[in-house]
Design brief:
Elements lengths: L9 H7 L4 H4 L1 H14 L2 H8 L1 H21 L3 H29 L4 H29 L3 H20 L7 H10 L5 H4 L4 H23 L1 H10 L6 H30 L1 H21 L4 H29 L4 H30 L3 H19 L19 H12 L2
Length: 403
């Protein structure tokens, strides 16, 4: 829920702190950039201090920095606090599913279903709660996030238990943990590099939509003589999040199983590029903007799951390393879009950021096509006797979808 709480209040922060849209969109940039960089190191950190303490460290950072953001008196201060929030986000997201599966008594498959369902519900409800709190004050969603994460922190401290390990077992686990540079060295693998480039371009489009859209939607509503505040924006992004959650958990696995990974990737990227292009064309129409934002959620849910599954199948690297590398690169790609969208809109016009996002997604399609020889093996059926790496794949999907 904490991820989506802030989106509906971006215009309200601009008004309250006399900040430009370009400045307030940097709340996404600082958060995503630090999250992305930290993702390269989280598997190493959890290997050294353990899953539980990694979760505790992540949640503590989120509580502290979300609370400080709520107390901030300037947009620059919030941008800085969001960076600390991003570090906590990386530590928590990278280990949450491993903790759930490790603590579950009903088997990993049931735990994974519960995790994905909870993630989807949180993604959808977050903007709704953020809009409601934002109607009271722009500070409300920050304090709301701090309270939510404090509840999660207490729950982990009180309820989360793992089997005790001997000193020898702990030493063996630390010795088997990935090295601090493993995620960077993983980019030497052509298939992972190709999919990482696709992820950078795709997430440029993704976060153009997510971070920039509140401003055109609000402007279109004002032009139509409608009152469109944080609550109404929260409803729009609730629809977006609900669509994303449904397709990522329910629709994407069916499509990739029946059609194959690469066709689903090509088709979804093409449709998303069209969606972004249409957002630019109909940027002055409130009904069109709202409809296209929600429809894009359907596409993004499929894309997130399919792209992550492709990453997991593309290499023989340890799955935790592949996941950390991919997640780090895609978050950094997402961080670039909000930093560019605001200045571009001010200089060239309101539709242009959407068209740039569409162009970036087209580049992702070209990369996927041109580097196809390195990806020909993805989506091939596993042998009947080959184990299904449910935990590792779902970990990666969780880390990827949380953007």
């Amino acid at each position: 829920m904490g991820i989506g709480l802030v989106d509906p209040i971006l215009p309200k922060i601009s008004a309250a702190l006399d900040a430009t849209p370009s400045e307030t969109m940097l709340l996404f940039t600082s958060y995503l950039f630090v999250t992305g960089i930290a993702m390269f190191f989280t598997s190493w950190v959890s290997g050294r201090i353990g899953v539980k303490w990694t979760l505790i460290a992540g949640l503590t950072l989120i509580v502290v920095f979300a609370g400080l953001a709520g107390l901030a008196g300037s947009v620059d201060a919030i941008i800085g606090f969001r960076a600390g929030w991003g570090l906590g986000n990386a530590l928590f997201l990278s280990t949450a599913l491993a903790a759930i599966v490790g603590a579950a008594s009903g088997g990993s498959r049931q735990a994974i279903v519960l995790y994905e369902a909870a993630l989807g519900i949180g993604m959808a409800i977050g903007p709704l709660v953020g809009g409601a709190l934002g109607e009271i004050s722009w500070r409300g969603p920050f304090f709301g996030t701090a309270i939510l994460m404090a509840i999660a922190l207490v729950a982990i401290l009180v309820l989360l238990r793992f089997p005790k390990q001997s000193a020898a077992e702990r030493a063996a686990a630390r010795a088997a943990a990935p090295s601090v540079t493993a995620s960077f060295r993983a980019l030497r693998h052509p298939a992972l590099l190709a999919l990482s480039l696709v992820a950078v371009c795709y997430n440029f489009g993704f976060f153009t939509l997510l971070a920039y859209s509140p401003y055109p939607v609000e402007a279109a509503a004002q032009a139509a003589g409608m009152e469109f505040g944080a609550h109404e924006l929260g409803l729009v992004f609730f629809g977006w999040g609900l669509a994303l959650a449904l397709t990522s958990v329910v629709v994407a696995p069916v499509l990739t199983r029946r059609l194959g990974l690469r066709p689903v990737l090509f088709a979804t990227l093409a449709l998303f590029a069209v969606c972004l292009g249409l957002l630019g064309v109909f940027v002055a129409s409130l009904p069109a903007l709202v409809s296209l934002v929600i429809v894009s959620g359907l596409l993004l849910g499929v894309m997130n799951t399919a792209l992550t599954e492709a990453v997991m199948e593309a290499t023989d690297l340890p799955r935790s390393v592949a996941s950390s590398t991919y997640s780090g690169v895609r978050f950094i790609g997402g961080a670039i879009a909000p930093a560019i969208a605001g200045p571009v809109a001010a200089a060239l016009g309101v539709p242009v950021p959407y068209w740039m996002g569409a162009a970036a997604v087209v580049v992702a399609i070209l990369v996927l096509a041109l580097m196809g020889k390195h990806l020909a093996h993805i989506g091939a059926e596993r042998g009947a006797n080959e184990p299904q790496p449910e935990l590792a794949e779902a970990q990666a999907i969780g880390a990827g979808d949380a953007s």
